[in-house]
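User: Study the shape:
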Amino acid sequence: MSIDILIFSILIISLALFSVMLFAFRIKGEKLIYEKVSKYHHIMVYEEGSIRTLRLGDGHDDGKQSRIDLNDPDYLLLEYTRLAFAALFINDMPLKVLIIGLGGGALPRAISHYIPEAEIDVVDIDPEVVEVAERFFMFTTGEMVRVHIGDGRTFIQKMAKDSLGKRYDMVILDAFNSSSIPRHLITKEFLKEVIQVLDPKGVVAANVLVDNRLFHSMLKTYRKVFKRCYIFMGGIAQNAVFISPGPDAPDINKKDIEERAHALQELYHFSFSMLSVARQFRSRYTPKISAKVITDSKDS
């Protein structure tokens, strides 16, 4: 073995050991306080001091689904939850809100806090996740917040068929398994169904993973269906939020967003900075030419 190969091998092994040590250090202070395997998820709740973290999956992929500081429960710890409020740049007073995917309930809890007049429907397929959100993450239901157990797409299809059904000012798509969005919740056909339950001046906010192999295809699919899809790119985590306005909703640009960020901060007194959210806007992001529109067909 040459000296160069030996040095390279030692370097690789050292980096691997450093990664393991770094991971061990990261989770050392966390204590697993709840674990259950449901029909849909391996549910784990970790606690470190006043911070609780929900993970769905193997628990070791850093895939945080939700987080709360028990000493400051109104602050949104995960970046993507703050980015979801970019939807307010399109509709600044959503009074009817639909959220697909509960997690720890951070988004419905925050929307209720800042917009108490909002009627919120939350759909989650796993009743065990709902129980965990209520038990460990201070999520509560009531007259203005209702939880529906079931598949998000099935719920939307039923609402779309009901001529007297709600038309939402804001729809938030935040359904994940351990590491990805269920495929039937990212297709062209599904997004067309979402439009049917969206007020024409409403807005859709979708949490997506940037490093997912389908990211560019998802972006292309959203722009195919909604025509407009603005991207707010996470800087800390590998998440982005797609903001897709309804057909009668206004266009936005960088200048509009920054002006509205100041107005929204003054209106709602957020504990986080809407100007920081505005600065995550990526106006010129386009999908790869090779990206394909995702459909219900298994061949797409």
In short: Residues 5-9, 11-26 have pLDDT under 50 and may be disordered. Residues 79-282 form a domain with the Rossmann fold fold (CATH 3.40.50.150). Residues 158 and 207 are 23 Å apart (CA to CA). Residues 3-28 form the longest helix (26 residues).
